[in-house]
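Notebook B, p. 112. Complex prediction, attempt 2.
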Amino acid sequence: MDLYVAAFGFGLVGMSVIAIAAVGFTMQFGITNMINLAYGEVMISSAYVAYYLNKAGISIWFGMVAGALFGAMFSFLLNRIVYAPFLRKGTAPIGMVIVSLAVSLMIANLLLPIVGYYSVSYQDTTGGLLRAGGIVLTTNQIAIIGVAVVLMLLIHGLLRYTRLGKAMRATAANPTLARNCGIPTQRVIDAVWLITGALCGLAGVVAAMNSDSFAIANGAGFLITALAAAVLGGAGQPYGAMIGAVIIGMVTELSAAAWSPEYKEVVAFGILVLVMVLRPQGLLAKRGALAAAG
Amino acid sequence: MAAAVDSLVTAGRPMLVASDIHRHFEGLHAVDGVSMDVPSGQITGLIGPNGAGKSTFLAVLAGTLPASAGTIVFDGEDVTTAPAYMRARRGLVRTFQLPSEFGRLTVLENLLVAAPKNRGDSLFGALRGRKYWIDDERRLAQQARALLKRFGLSAQESEYAGTMSGGQKRLIEIMRALMLQPRLLLLDEPMSGVHPKIVLEIQHYLEDLRAEGLTILMVEHELHMVERLCDSVVVMAQGKVIGSGTMATLRRQREIVDAYLVG
Amino acid sequence: MNTYYATNLLVYAGVDIIACLALNMQFGVSGIVNFSFIVFQAVGAYAAAVLSLPPDSANGGFQIYVGGYQLPFPIPWIGGAAAGGLLAIPVGLVVLRRLRSDYQAIALLVLSIITNAVITNARPLLNGAAGLALVPPPFSDQIDPNTETYQFLYVGLTAVCVVIVFVLVNRIVNSPYGRSLRAMRERELAAIAIGKNPVRLKMTVFIVGGVIAGLSGAILVGFIQLWAPSVWLYPETIILFAAVIVGGRGNNIGAILGALLVPVGFEEVTRFIPTTIGPPGLIPALQWVAIGLLIIGFLWFRPEGVRPEPRHVFEGAPAREESA
């Protein structure tokens, strides 16, 4: 039983990490209709940026900010240089998927000779352990939960109360109509890639913080987990992604306690399959986002 | 000129009977209890303001969208739960408002692919090799070429359909539908986006097809066209039928004129 | 050039050609973006392996796996092909029915990643990360696999398979059935409106492609006599996609060309670059970068590939004016 209580604690951290990643991923899809398969690689790249800063003696929290900035810039450039030109050319969504997969492959393999194949981890001696009723977490992990909560509130605030947020929601619902209503869709899209890129970068750093070690090879796993949470919640729905993150974060940690930690991503995948079979549009359905033609 | 029929009584049973069709999605009632009979061998128009639910209703009849409630009986057969491809095979064929040609197939291929009785159009038929299906192909190519000739597109048979003009694409779609030997043709704004010269051509083709016994249900905006072509008309607004009959009868009904008809 | 190098090249070329013909049928002709293609080759290889291997207690018992029936050729190859087809059934039923095409692709990609992870970790199934070794090649009882004669025999067997697959795929693609597949690829809604059942078409193509992929795996495992998860990581599918895109999608000759240019061509060209340049693993990493660039480059400049899908002109057609 203690195992499960501890796992519950890990689940809280896990869902926080996944939430940051999944909200960014789903917003990219919801507003730009782009399934960005390079998302996991951008996460890992940002994790490495924080790693090198950490090695140079800089605190991991500053590294987190740096990772977010790096993720924002990287994602913005990725869209400007690769995705947007293909979209302007009229490439179908399925073609964009192939493009983003090729990009993810290139990013991973450009990094590999630089950072190497072996796993690395952050050096952080500042934290202590906190115990509460069977839950054991490091202060860093508690902080990650805090960061996630703050970010979710900020996103909520952005979408609900700011002009940019409203413009994003309008563009997500109907890009042509949004443009005709005078919304500067180009600027909105740039903002989306910067903001979601920051989320992506930040998610990469906290995901790495929450693991014993990480390497380029973990990029695929990050992508799958964020994807599963996004799809579960309903593709393109930020609040759905938060719900999806809660479910997947908790279920994967509990299953890791029940069976084996190696299969966490398999469980996430299993949930993804279940969603696709039972309810492809996810929990908070967006107008036929996943439904097949006809 | 449309036959002056002042009522919907026709010889024989209607080709299609839609009963209390509802279609709602995410709280929006696009089709809110529509019932109508589509009389055989006539061209019936379906008109109404934008957002009336006409295209949605057509899509429900064709099976592209499932009905939330109601039944559809096509030539005596209940097809309410039949999938769209099945309805097409049984002779209930639709066209689309936006160009829906198969772009990277040639014009001739667009027609051939629609022909139902082709031995080569199955996995095992194809695996048995060319000799097995070439006779069917030749027979169907003859049929298709006859259609192309009739509709004036013989010279373009080997062009990619995607390179054709809007009007030509519309003709291709109609011909493609005809290869299925349909009994009821559902046309979704067949004249939209088409050059006026070709509009007249299409009108004549549809009249010829009606003379040959084809039943047509046509969503159309252009009221003069509707008046010239349709034997009777159904008017929809806000998901419901607000009137039916000939254009002349409808013009006499105040509510309809107020709601929709201008002049 | 020694014989073993040549026969090695030819067998790999044959396997790649078979795989590209299948992927072209699924992706190029029918529009199914099967990002899990390599899994079907892998299941064929594993099936052929466990059918031809002795029980896992043999050879000192250092491997753990299911099966081990020690069956002679051609059963392992038939088994491999069948395994590929059988796997396609549940995968296709889950993925190909209700999802829009880009989500289908993602689901298949994730399947590929996860299957590899599961097989790597579940050691008792197929010997985990180490994979299966000492797989008996066909006819190993009759002919010593280490001789040149055997190499030629293997090339001959592979060539026969290539010819059979080519004939079958060609018949499927260049037929009224192939035309229906292309129509579905072009505009699925309109295909439905003319009576095509897209689910049935996609399932059929998925299963047939799976059978061919499985066969290619059986051929390969019989030659290299081992098979491990590192051989079938998800990017392997991307190489095949690059091949089909470069060679010309929708064109069987294009698929063959792509197979020769990309998987075979790349391997051969990079063989001559010394691996001591730069940090370890630089050359393979740059290979992948080049594959990515190839895909993006061709999708931008020449999406139809080197040999595009041919225009089907029916006999007796009026002469076309070739556009300038």
